[in-house]
Amino acid sequence: MFKMHRVFALACLALLLGGCSTIPSRIEEKSAAFAALDADTQNKIRLGRVDVGYSPDLVYIALGTPDERLTKTTTTGTSETWIYNNYSQEYLGRVHTGYRQYTYIDPKTRQAIVTYEPVYSSIFRDRVDERIRIHFKANQVETIEQVKR
Prior knowledge:
4 strands; single chain; 30% helix; four-stranded antiparallel β-sheet
């Protein structure tokens, strides 16, 4: 029985790790585009940096799949914007959520004693902050907007 649980746990771990998109896995996925680059550009991409003039493939290798894609069509043509976000939780404090009942027997009187203890829970709020916005025109990075913190 223990061996079966271990095999199941390893299989779950393999599935989780197999679905992770990392820079090395994206380099392998887009190996032809990456191999055609000079050494300086390859190093920038390995560090997760992008620059004006990069193709969508190079941005994908460096930053992964965008959280949002916006398409803008005008009389001069179509452009695309990729948006990458940071996700976090913000601690808001603690709130009283009720009472926990405890019952025990008094050893001397053999009577049941009931006490109540307040219960508090931590409150968190999900935060989504835009990290970087990449604008493409004619299949190349035209502008990069990045929040400096």
